[in-house]
Amino acid sequence: MKLAPSILSADFARLADAVAAVERGGADWVHVDVMDGHFVPNLTFGPKMVADLRRATRLPLDVHLMIEHPDQWVERYVEAGASYLTVHVETLPDPAPTLARIRRAGARAGLTLNPETAVESVLPFLPLADLILVMSVRPGFGGQRFIEEAIAKIRRVRHELDRARLAAELEIDGGVKLDNVRRVVAEGVSVVVAGSAVFEDGEGAEVAVRKFRDALA
Ligand code: DX5
Ligand code: ZN
């Protein structure tokens, strides 16, 4: 199981410190939420922020694009240093060419879906993806409550990946805390995103990452 702290809940004026802290705590990836103010009602990071983060940590950068027209941005985010680049199925009439484009640009390709989107929308693309991300909150903001319906989606994707003998990562994002992370991982998730639970922990992000590790040990 890999832990990917989301810097959405970190202090944006101190992101180098934030990624250093989670790296010391033993995080596996850094989750970077890119928002455009159109697909979601919030704004965050452009490619330059990803390039600057790339120099601030050795951890893989797991870049989650919550933007319209993601095709126009694939090369810029990959060149900036995205290790995984994940796009929303809702933003694409056909995700297949975009997933291929991400791989061709040199990153691992991820596909994700909103809580209100049927899981069937991603199933045809499992063989073309290196990562499937199940959203367990409506994207846009950290600190929301875990939507339980995500569990059934995780089970379904896990089942289909195993049945087709596919090794894609299965990631969950939104509302994961110390008190539900074990339950989520038990459903077959391989990557857990946690934002507010890591960066709003009173003991600091490094200790928070260790607490997640202990919760899963
Ligand atoms: C929501 C983002 C998440 C967010 C998760 O749009 O995709 O990555 O940072 O934050 P928490 O863990 O606080 O729900
Ligand atoms: Zn995210």
Can you walk through the features of this model?
By secondary structure, the protein is an alpha/beta fold. It has one domain: TIM Barrel (Alpha-Beta Barrel). Helices cover 35% and strands 19% of the residues. It has an eight-stranded parallel beta sheet. β6, α5 and β7 form a beta-alpha-beta unit. α1 packs parallel to α8. The longest helix has 15 residues. Bound molecules: D-xylitol-5-phosphate and zinc ion. The site of zinc ion has 6 residues, from β2. D-xylitol-5-phosphate binds next to β2, β8 and α7.
Task: Provide a short characterization of the protein structure.
The protein is α/β, with parallel strands linked by helices. It has 8 helices and 8 strands. It has an 8-stranded parallel β-sheet.
Question: What can be said about the biggest beta sheet?
Answer: 8 strands, parallel
Instruction: Give a list of the ligands.
Output: D-xylitol-5-phosphate, zinc ion
Q: Which whole number gives the mean pLDDT?
A: 98
Alpha-beta content class: alpha/beta
What is the domain tally? 1
The portion of residues assigned to helices is: 25-40%
How large is the count of helical segments?
8
Q: How far is it from the N-terminal to the C-terminal residue, by CA?
A: 10 Å
